[in-house]
Each structure stands twice: as structure tokens, then as C-alpha cells.
Amino acid sequence: MVQGTYHQLPSLERLNLLLGEWNLEFIFPKDPDHHLHGREDFEWMKNRLFLFERWHVAHPDATDRVGIIGADDDGETFTMHSFGSSGVIPIYRMSLNDGVWKLWHDHPGLSQRFEGKFSDDGNTITSYWERSTDGSRWERDFDLIYSRVTLRTNV
Length: 155
What we know:
Blueprint lengths: L19 E9 L2 E14 L6 E7 L7 E7 L6 E7 L6 E7 L2 E6 L5 E8 L5 E9 L6 E12 L5
Antiparallel strand pairs: 1-2, 1-10, 2-3, 3-4, 4-5, 5-6, 6-7, 7-8, 8-9, 9-10
């Protein structure tokens, strides 16, 4: 995204798949009996140039966050600026193509990546997060199941 230049690109239409409120279920590979629950909500900003994301996990040690997603000039990818209650402000790259949603953040000391696949009806996303401290060896952080609660109509 070119600084100061914001325009509506056709790629933004793909983000409509995310619209609405989602219940989240976190499953940890190292402790599969331990589940956390939360919610995530996506809605368009006025004029549909950016998509707002709000994330809340029902656990006192979990980080809440808000994100702002915009289209990159290449017409294929997106950038998400994420602001967390932990004070960490990562910038994620993102793609959403053919029912597969990906996020990634490469940073010395902690890189992260996410992949989610939409169900045929678009109301479930089966996903996972991975992390790496050296950028080459990846470890599964947790699995995440999204279940749509409501669909936003501000498209």
C-alpha cells in the first residue's frame, strides 16, 4: 500500500467472506483438553476502503486486539495493522484466495503464520497458527475453529 494513497481495489471484494461475528475455539496441540473461547468481528469502514477486525479471547492472559485491513496495490494481497492490548503492534501480510485465508508476519525473534480454510457454506473456518523464533523451524501454536454467528450486511 502506498503511503497516503488509498483507493478501492477489486481485491477488497474477497474480504466479504470475513464479514460478521465469529465464535472462536482454540485447541492447543500440547494440551488438547485445554480449550479457550473468544470472538472475532469484521466490518467495513465507511466507503469500504478498510475492513475493521476486533478480536477478544475470554481469558485474563490473552491479548485482545483490533486490526485494520487494506488492499495492497498489487491487487492480490492485503496488509493488516494489528493493535494488541499487550502493546505489541505487528503488521501482517494477508491473502484470501479460493477459500484459503493466510496471514504472515516475519520478524527477528518471532515470526508467525496462519492458514484458514473456509467450509463450502462459508460459515466455518478451520485454521491454525504457527510460530518460529529463527524463521526456519516452525512450531504449531494452536488450532482455531471459527463458527459464524452473524453475517454483516454492510457490504
